[in-house]
Amino acid sequence: MKKLIKSLIFLIIVATIFTACSKKEAKTNEDGKIKINYYHVNAETQGGIAVADLVDNFNKNNDHIEVVATYNPDMYKGLMQNLQAKQAAGELPGLVQVGWAFLDYFSNNFDYVSPQDAIDKFDKDDPNFLKDNFLENILDLAKNSDGDQVGIPYSLSTPVLYINKDLLKNCGLSEEGPKTWKEVHEFAKTIKDKTGKYGLYIQEPQDFWAQQALIESNGAKMITDNKASFASQEGIEAMKAYQDMVNDGSAIHISWDEGVQSFVDGNICMCYTTIARREQIQKGAKFDVGTVKSPTFEGKDRKIPAGGCFLAITATKDDEIAAAWEFEKYLYGIEQMATWTKGTGYTPPRKDVADAENGLKSFLQENQMMRPAIEQSEDVVSWASFPGNAGLEAEQLLLDMRDEILSGADVKNSMETTQEKINSLLAGK
């Protein structure tokens, strides 16, 4: 009996040691390299080629890490769903792209390693990497509602106003474009009256991103103290200005793809949409096309939400965390950031890429339409991410509100009702 007990104890000790070792050891390939998975949402036509080039170059130039890039369809929502399944199976990737609208959802539901923690532990020779290379307001984009730095901004897009300079000139308007939303309305009305064409289209995909820019540029806030707060006087005024343009026929309310294509075809004079559409518009337009900064409301600061994503480390073993950070830091190198910008249309989050000889200096000289987006980086704010697990439903309520308003509903009533519904969701009612 004693021998049996001793044997059982021995087996338990061996099993415990084996389990402990397996938790500390990272996966390796046949060459002994540490293997990590990189989850991204970039299809081949939307930056996937750039992802492949960056990963291939990294793998060829180090002798201890192998990165495997995994494409996730259905954008960031699909990636979150896949990540849930992997977490349940105990098979989290090393590094993931997280869409801004999922910032709080991700930090509330998944294990992650904050970038500074990874630096402090595995990159002690460069402790100020974040502070030295990123503007404070850009880093803040990847902080959750508790103020924790969840990741590092990677894909940045901001809304700009694309303009048909030829059409503006033919109508006696400045080819420099409007500077304020009041001027946008005046320009759009002139275009409609003189040509019969629509003056303006504001993007309407399955998110409230562009409308947040209008609301917050007029001094309102989408979220205050973890509660929806967009139905303030300033928020209502901004959406009423948008409704007025649609009501008088100077702006058009259609789908995103239809709106951008109508602009490219010359049937709309101005198009307010993401800089990430720059290449498509620049190649497709048969007229003199330009971009200007996101318009402001008179006397108020420009506030534009960041589109795109941030990178977060989800590796759990020390060797994999170190490898994930090494790969992530590589992605933020000046040359790699330039490759990413050229391949996707996103503006670089790192502050010294635009003017670097090995960065985007020559590219920007040839692609001046990128300049306004880069120059308004200091005006970037966080994309509204509602706390808890109510984010997806809250986003749909905002879209329903937008459609109601642009279909003629009372702006004040629609916004106040929607705000109440979202706050009830957040309160768990």
TrEMBL record:
InterPro entries: Bact_solute-bd_prot1 (IPR050490), SBP (IPR006059). It comes from the Bacteria. It is found in: Cell envelope. Keywords: Signal, Transport. GO terms for cellular component: cell envelope. Residues 1-26 form the signal peptide. Pfam families: SBP_bac_8. Belongs to the bacterial solute-binding protein 1 family. This is Glycerol-3-phosphate transporter periplasmic binding protein. It comes from Peptoniphilus lacrimalis. The lineage of its organism: Bacteria, Bacillati, Bacillota, Tissierellia, Tissierellales.
